[in-house]
Amino acid sequence: MKRAHILIYTSSATKIPLVGGGTHDVGIFLGELVEPIEPLIRAGHLVEFVSPDGKGCVIDPASYRITNWGLSRSRMEHARNFFETTFQELGVGNPVKLSDILADKTRLNSYDVVFIPGGHAPMTDVLHKDWLVSDEYNDQTGELLLHFHKNNKITSAICHGSAALGAAPQVNGKWIYADYNMTCVSMAAEWLTEDIPFFNIGGHMPDYPVRILKRLGGKVHTKMLGRSNVVEDRELITGQDPYSAKELGEKLMKKIEVRQNF
How far apart are CA 169 and CA 80, in angstroms? Predict the structure, then answer.
């Protein structure tokens, strides 16, 4: 069996800025990292981790809310264990620095898939260079995405991770994902986490994935809370939120099998 080489692009950010000042502690959502990737690892595909600064990700404590797991504690504990064992053994805590991969074209060419997990964290250092400092987008993320786009390689993201697509450049005056169908965390979910006391993050973000992607020309499709939503268009496959993580893993597996002619 031919094995795909999958690059998992994680954020190492721990805070997002809030409108009016202040920050909120964030990280990567456990389910949105583990559930799409676990079946690929079990199938024998190769994974490698990369981050903007070469530092490991932090798991957002909010991702341990049982509501993110279909009320299944066993499902959550399985993901936690897989992260703490298999993912650690594979190097999630010691990722490669993105600039090192971009500087090595042979290495860059070796990857078949790039996957960007969710949680609020990617908004700070994967989409932006440093959202705590400015709104400037991360041009290295853009360079990585352009490589996968130009070479028709699978690009996948989920929830707030999908916002990272906004860092992709324009070619001939047009964003490379303009008119692509895609999904990301819904505005309903954003309002829930920002305005409902039980979830309240203490303020509002300066911008949101849905608005970013739509401004650039993406066709963003979201569903009601609690329903899985995976959208596939050409080389791109995206999931809406934690409820979509398992389906994203299943469809990503099928997409890899078709592309790799297994």
Answer: 35
In angstroms, the CA 146 to CA 44 distance is 27
Tell me: domain 5-260, CATH 3.40.640.10, correct?
Answer: no
CA gap 11, 26 in Å, rounded: 10
Q: Are 47 and 6 in contact (CB under 8 A)?
A: yes
Question: How many alpha carbons lie under 13 Å from residue 154 in its C-beta half-sphere?
Answer: 26
Residue boundaries of the structural domains of the chain: 5-260
Separation CA 171–CA 17 (nearest Å): 30
* Each residue's pLDDT expressed in tens, for the chain with a length of 262 residues: 689 999 999 999 999 999 989 999 999 999 999 999 999 999 999 999 999 999 999 999 999 999 999 999 999 999 999 999 999 999 999 999 999 999 999 999 999 999 999 999 999 999 999 999 999 999 999 999 999 999 999 999 999 999 999 999 999 999 999 999 999 999 999 988 887 755 667 789 999 999 999 999 999 999 998 899 999 999 999 999 999 999 999 999 999 999 877 4
Cross-strand partners of 181? 219
d(CA 16, CA 24): 5
Which residues make beta-bridge pairs with 175?
Answer: 170
Question: What is the pTM for the complete model shown?
Answer: 0.96
- The CA distance from 141 to 156, in Å, is 13
Which run of H or E residues covers position 101? Answer: helix 98-102
Residue 21 burial (CB count, 10 A) = 7
From the number of C-beta atoms within 10 Å of its C-beta (0-12, 13-18, 19+), residue 150 rates as: exposed
Q: Is 258 exposed, middle or buried (0-12, 13-18, 19+ CB in 10 A)?
A: exposed
